[in-house]
Amino acid sequence: MRGQGVAILLTTHYLDEAEILADRIGIIRLGKLVAEGTIDQLRDKMQAIRSIEVQLSRAYDASQIAQKLANLDPSFRSIPCYDSLHNKITFAQPKDMSLSRCLGLILAWLDGEKLAFSKYSTKEPSLEEVFLALATVDDHALLESDLK
């Protein structure tokens, strides 16, 4: 039916299902539509586009990593998260920075701080993460332009 131009409305609490089936998503909070668009458009409304996770080669004390993070390029406006249990650092890619520039800054920082790593990966936010970010935003923070 979709191929014949028929609109299908699906309401679900299963966001993984919606992510697979839907062309467009609407997020309703307290009876009001707070966001609507394609999954990529909704991701774009979030502060960060994707996360970059770096697997360190060995364990570090959290205070050691905190000292090294103080030397990170100031264009990273969000604070990276260090998972000492898994020896991973997760960075949020700034919205106004290309992925290649972001990776370049992270790799240069790792090299400058002499932090050996075994791998890195990027991850787009899931629809659930987008939903939580958009549906729990403070009402005063909603901008009229975000509702379109």
Task: Describe what you observe in this structure.
It is a single chain. The two termini are 27 Å apart. The strands form two sheets. A four-stranded antiparallel beta sheet has the order 4-5-3-6. A two-stranded antiparallel sheet has the order 1-2. The chain has 148 residues and is α+β, with helices and mostly antiparallel strands. Strand 1 and strand 2 form a beta hairpin. The model is unreliable at 142-148 (pLDDT under 50). The longest helix is centred in the C-terminal third of the chain and has 14 residues, at 99-112. The protein is 30% helix and 25% strand. The protein has helices at residues 15-21, 39-45, 62-69, 99-112, 127-135; strands spanning 25-29, 32-37, 48-56, 81-83, 88-94, 117-123.
Q: What's the N-to-C terminus distance?
A: 27 Å
What's the gyration radius in Å? 19 Å
Number of strands: 6
Mean pLDDT: 84
- Described by the principal axes of the CA atoms, the overall outline is elongated
- Please name the CATH architecture of the largest domain: 2-Layer Sandwich
Q: If strands are numbered along the chain, what order do they take across the biggest sheet?
A: 4-5-3-6
The assigned structural class equals alpha+beta
Number of helices: 5
- CATH fold-level label of the largest domain: Alpha-Beta Plaits
Q: Give the proportion of residues in helices.
A: 25-40%
Number of domains: 2
Low-confidence stretches: 142-148
Largest sheet data: 4 strands, antiparallel
